[in-house]
Design a protein that fits this description.
Pathway: One-carbon metabolism; tetrahydrofolate interconversion; Amino-acid biosynthesis; glycine biosynthesis; glycine from L-serine: step 1/1. One of its GO terms (biological process) is tetrahydrofolate interconversion. It is an enzyme of class 2 (transferase). The protein is an alpha/beta fold and 424 residues long. The chain has two domains: 233 residues, Aspartate Aminotransferase, domain 2 (3-Layer(aba) Sandwich), CATH 3.40.640; 121 residues, Aspartate Aminotransferase, domain 1. The protein has 16 helices and 15 strands. The chain has a seven-stranded mixed β-sheet with strand order 4-10-9-8-7-5-6, sandwiched between helices. Helix 8 links the parallel strand 7 and strand 8. It is globular and about 60 Å long. The termini are close together. 52% of the residues are buried. Bound molecules: pyridoxal-5'-phosphate. Pyridoxal-5'-phosphate binds next to helix 5.
């Protein structure tokens, strides 16, 4: 049963409705550990599915290129006000279609083609849009990359400072997709100030933790903060670029007309709803629980001899190097998926293996925390992961996969999922 219900979809297009239903069941029955995913609330789903999708509104509130903005302007202004208040931002643009276009807008606001950008290298945990070679950002700009230290698995701030002094980037990115530790925003800010660079913090993964007070905030340190809205922040797929007042005009101009056309108003409304939810004491408790769950899961994995990059976690994310377990990331991830544990294979720093067949696994606890799992469930979860990984290394996991998947379905049946429930 969907909440909101989807009777028209079921009547008009049973093929798509059937796939939506199957996906809802899949999300219900799996321990979802993909670090960038979550479950949104029914209120967010309703806003996303609303008639706001019918409306064009290129421009910004009060200065649009289309008539009929009596309701859209207040929606967007509410989203902006809520973002500013939640994060303590001087300026917020809520129109970027997703995280990657949001980051492109940051380039467009501050750089010319060929200018130098400094970002965390992709295989060390950075994002494609921080200047990786296959990305437009790596092709159109002179990208210089920092990494993590081999001995600590943590970002090498000495390397960041040395590279910034030598290369004089116009833009420095901090943040990434596989960073299990707290980002030192004040240290990045000091380097950016010294070298005259704009500092952009990409908080796509940790926005919900920052909103809930479970990770230090980049505001007051970074000039620009970009984020997706659909990861730990638990909103619809979308993004925001926030900044100091000084850069407000440049950011807005870069998003529209620089990069995009009409904003997705149904998404803007859903972002506003998610930001309202994220401002509640319940969400702060949720953010703390995400971190507590990740710590407990990391401790249970360490106890079972897993090699965690940086030795643990400060946030929602755990990066495992499977080398000592005698199995690569991809076969392990595939076996775990069949066993009801969904996560992704991932490169680890200094990975000797190829990006499409790397050594590691990446896990995050945002979605399982939304399902109401707590620290007490983490030792069992680590035990299931271990059982499947060991069986995969031995080459005969089929039986273990089936057994674990059944146990997981049993556990999750008692933990409701927002947006869907199995028929009684
Ligand atoms: C997810 C992510 C993005 C990109 O978001 P999309 O919505 O997938 O384009 C950008 N930066 C970081 C650090 C991310 O984790």
């Amino acid at each position: 049963m969907h909440e909101p219900v989807i009777p028209h979809l079921q009547a008009e297009d049973p093929e798509i409705a059937g796939l939506v239903e199957a996906e809802a069941r899949r999300q219900f029955e799996k321990i979802r550990l993909i670090a960038s995913e979550n479950y949104v609330s029914p209120a967010v789903l309703e806003a996303t599915g609303s008639v706001l999708t019918n409306k064009y509104s290129e421009g910004y509130a009060g200065r649009r290129y289309y008539e009929g903005q009596q309701n859209i302007d207040p929606v967007e202004l509410l989203a902006i006000e809520r973002a500013r208040s939640l994060f303590g931002a001087e300026h917020a643009n809520v129109q970027p279609y997703s995280g990657s276009p949001a980051n492109l807008a940051v380039y467009l606001a501050f750089l010319q083609p060929g200018d130098t950008v400094l970002g965390l290298s992709l295989p060390m945990g950075g994002h494609l849009t921080h200047g990786w070679s296959v990305s437009a950002t790596g092709k159109w700009f002179n990208a210089v990359r920092y990494g993590v230290r081999a001995d600590t698995g943590r970002i090498d701030m000495d390397e960041v400072r040395d590279l910034a002094r030598r290369e004089r980037p116009k833009l420095i990115w901090c943040g990434g997709t596989a960073i299990p530790r707290t980002i030192d925003f004040p240290a990045f800010a000091e380097i950016a100030r010294e070298t005259g660079a704009v500092l952009a913090a990409d908080i796509a993964h940790i926005a919900g933790l920052i909103a809930g007070g479970a990770h230090p905030s980049p505001f007051g340190h970074a000039d620009v903060v970009s984020t997706t809205t659909h990861k730990t922040l638990r909103g619809p797929r979308g993004a925001m670029v926030m900044s100091t007042a000084e850069h407000a005009a440049a950011i807005d101009k870069a998003v529209f007309p620089g990069l995009q056309g009409g904003p997705h108003n149904h998404t803007t409304a859903a972002i506003a709803v998610a930001l309202k939810e994220a401002a509640t004491p319940g969400f702060a408790a949720y953010a703390r629980q995400i971190v507590a769950n990740a710590r407990a899961l990391a401790a249970a994995l360490l106890e079972r001899g897993y090699d965690l990059i940086s030795g643990g976690t400060d946030n929602h994310l755990i990066l495992i190097d499977l080398t000592n377990k005698g199995v690569a990331g991809k076969p392990a991830a595939q076996a775990l998926d069949r066993a009801g544990v969904e996560l992704n294979y991932n490169a680890v720093p200094f990975d000797p293996r190829k990006p499409f067949d790397p050594s590691g696994l990446r896990l995050g606890t945002a979605a399982i925390t939304t399902r109401g799992l707590t620290e007490e469930h983490m030792p069992q979860l680590a035990a299931w992961i271990d059982e499947v990984v060991q069986a995969t290394a031995k080459g005969d996991a089929a039986e273990v996969e089936q057994k674990v998947a059944a146990r997981i379905r049993e556990l999750l049946a008692a933990h409701p999922m927002p947006g869907w429930a199995p028929a009684p």
